[in-house]
Each structure stands twice: as structure tokens, then as C-alpha cells.
Amino acid sequence: MSVPTVHPGPVTPVGHETILVVEDEDGIRAFVKTALRRFGYHVLEASSAEGALAAVAGSTAPIHLLLTDVVLPKMDGRELAVRITRDRPRTKVLFMSGYTERMGTAEGFSSRGSSSSKSRSQPRRCSPGYGNCSGQTERQS
């Protein structure tokens, strides 16, 4: 008895929300921005926590997701998240880091409304992960 093989269709962009990407490494920030835009998201970017705070202060538009590196110069991603969500409590937070083994509940990174990701090289994973945060799911065409 032969079992038919199912091949899913191409992924259709589903995003329309605004994501603020904060990453001090230019190449990583550019990659993440490009990947998210391919999935239809509007992307704001900053290379530092200070730049992110300035971008947020200068905008009245909603920011649906803060996607921030944990390790940033001068102010870490956790402190940035606290400051942004204090004034914008509906903004969800997703931490990304190459140092996930140093993250954990003891350092306060596991909290309600936040997630972490060590994946920086798989753009397809960005969209479904965020879709789960926003209550949306990926559509197949």
C-alpha cells in the first residue's frame, strides 16, 4: 500500500504588523529585516537600545513586536523591553541571542508576554513564531 506524498504550497506573506528590530550587528539586523519584510511585516530598525527608544518616542503608530538582541552596548535587551512595554503595554517582546545558554528564568528572561529565539539563520521560522505571538497563523496557498 502506497502512502501519497503531500507537498505544501508556497508560503504566502501573512504579516502586516510593525516589528521593531534592535540588533547592533549590521549584517544580522539587515538579514532579519529582509526576512521579515518578505513575510509582509513593516520593519523599523535600530542598532542600539538608545536608537530604539528614540524611534519609539518619535512615533505614535503601534509597534506590535519588539525583536531585540539580548546583548547590546550600554543597555541590554531586557532593560529596553521593560522601558518600551512600560509605555506600550500591548507591544510583545521576542528576545534573540547567540548566548541562549546564559539566558534563563534566573536572569528574568522567561516572563509572561516574552519569548526567546536562538535562531538567526532561518527566516521561515521568524514568521510562524511571531504569528503565534499575535494570534495569527501562516497560510498556505
Topology, pairings included?
Layout: E1 11-12, E2 18-22, H1 26-38, E3 42-46, H2 49-57, E4 65-69, H3 77-87, E5 92-96, E6 114-117, H4 123-134, E7 139-140
Parallel strand pairs: 2-3, 2-4, 4-5, 5-6
Antiparallel strand pairs: 1-7
Helix pairs in contact: 2-3
Description:
The structure is a single chain. The chain has 141 residues and is an alpha/beta fold. The chain has a single domain, classed as Rossmann fold. 32% of the residues lie in helices and 20% in strands. The chain has 4 helices and 7 strands, in the order ββαβαβαββαβ. The strands form 2 sheets. The protein has a 5-stranded parallel sheet, sandwiched between helices. A two-stranded antiparallel sheet has the order 1-7. Helix 2 runs parallel beside helix 3. The longest helix has 13 residues. The two termini are 29 Å apart. The C terminus is likely disordered.
